[in-house]
Amino acid sequence: MAKVLMFLPPVLFAGLAALFIVGMNRDDPDNLPSVLAGKPAPAVRVTPLGEGPVFADADLRLPGVKLVNFFASWCAPCRAEHPILEKLSGEGITIYGVNYKDRVEDAQGFLGELGNPYTAIGQDGGRMALDWGVYGVPETYVIDGAGQIILRFAGPITEQELERSIRPAIAEASK
């Protein structure tokens, strides 16, 4: 029995090492899976953010592609991705903004400084983000004309990710 126990630590170590190696060799380690892809977008639960227009569930089911972007003024990656959102908005893409766990005046200052790419915007104290499976801001969802989620993108949208992930999802949502 003692000889069997002597081999137990190396066997356990080898098994743990194998798990680490498999985990590190995934295709895209930054890709967080979403159980919502291909399903209807969850309920919109936002409150007004100042005087601007607010969006609702019905807006997500209107014809055409739209994005839902969760952001916050305190989020440095949100600031970094903002020019990409401005660019998409300038191209005619409808973007709905969800200001996540932020103060109204801070969010308005953020948009006043950087511009407002959002067709409509609302504030979320955390309930909507929880329903949507948001890990953290920024997160962006590409939604088709039937209100189905085509893509969930976690993290800031860069030029590279715009071409690699977002534009193909927009094209798919346009079909």
Task: Describe the protein's architecture and organization.
This protein is an alpha/beta fold and 175 residues long. Helices cover 43% and strands 18% of the residues. The chain has 6 helices and 6 strands, in the order H-E-H-E-H-E-H-E-H-E-E-H. It has helices at 2-24, 57-60, 76-90, 104-114, 127-132, 159-174, and strands at residues 47-48, 66-71, 94-100, 120-124, 139-143, 149-154. It has a 6-stranded mixed β-sheet. A hairpin with a 5-residue loop joins strand 5 and strand 6. The longest helix has 23 residues, at 2-24.
Question: How is this structure best summarized?
Answer:
The protein has six helices and six strands; from the N terminus they run αβαβαβαβαββα.
What share of the residues lie within helices? Answer: 40-55%
Total strands: the figure is 6
Radius of gyration: 20 Å
* Mean model confidence by pLDDT: 88
What fraction strand? 15-25%
What gap, in angstroms, lies between the N and C termini?
Answer: 65 Å
Structural class: alpha/beta
